[in-house]
Amino acid sequence: MNPRLRLACAASLVALPVAASAALAQPAITTMAPGTLTVCTYGGFPPTSYATGGGTWAGLDATFVGRFARSVGLSVTPRISTSFAGIWQRPGTGECDMAAAGITVTDERRQQAAASTFSAPYHATLRAYVVRRGSVLTGPRGLAGKTILVVKGSIAQQDVQRRVRQAGVPGVRIRFTTGGVAARQAVRSGRAFAYETDDLSAGQAARLDPRLAVAWLHPRADAQGRSVREDLAYVVRDASTGLLPALNAFIAENRGDYAT
Predict the structure, then answer these.
(1) Range of the domain at 174
(2) 3-state SS of the chain: helix, strand, coil percent to 5?
(3) DSSP 8-state assignment for residue 28
(4) Cβ contacts of residue 149 below 8 Å, gap of 6+?
(5) Which pLDDT tens digit goes with each residue over 120-154?
(6) How far apart are CA 96 and CA 24, in angstroms?
(7) Least CB-packed of 43, 135, 234, 241 within 10 Å?
(8) Co-location of 202 and 140 in the same domain
(9) Same domain, yes or no: 44 and 79
């Protein structure tokens, strides 16, 4: 045998056990229900996460999480809630393996998410307002005396409250909505001046309804009033072993395709 070929074969024989041991070292994914990824989600954030008329989970998060689940051999069982507030806490209570609903990463939410961990970010977004076409809104002072809709417990609620308070804007009425569809209808009919959401939801609203428009794109405000980056991430139950590293690896490879 050619000496070089003999050396190559010997090297490959040595490498095989190493590769096999590395594969065995990778943690297996365990979930609440074997073979199933149970997902806590919210049904009112189109196009990110929403419930269809038939009650199925749809949107960018549903598609992205579905792709991930298939890549690791899991099926998806969504648990769709009509409430967004505190959804990042539900995996840690054992309600689901992960939460996926356009969840913005904040230090406060990390602290609240006991027995669970935020994934790597998969998308960055901006704050935006849905208004009737022709309405003018370029900053917080344009909200004076107006009714603004937000989803309870959302970054939208936090952001508008902070900016109105910091700018000293009077007479702003903040009201809760059940989600994007109801909010669009209220703005279109004049029952509210604007709906505060993110750029994905606002952009979809304007595309679907020519009577609506996107106004005042801006970063979210932190507690000190500084404009900060807004990253979206998933929240993974710590007891679902192997799930977080597999999800983070998938995000690293596919985050560029999330909103396309």
Answers:
(1) 127-218
(2) 40, 30, 35
(3) P
(4) 175, 176, 177, 183, 186, 187, 192, 194, 195, 196
(5) 999 999 999 999 999 999 999 999 999 999 999 99
(6) 27
(7) 241
(8) yes
(9) yes
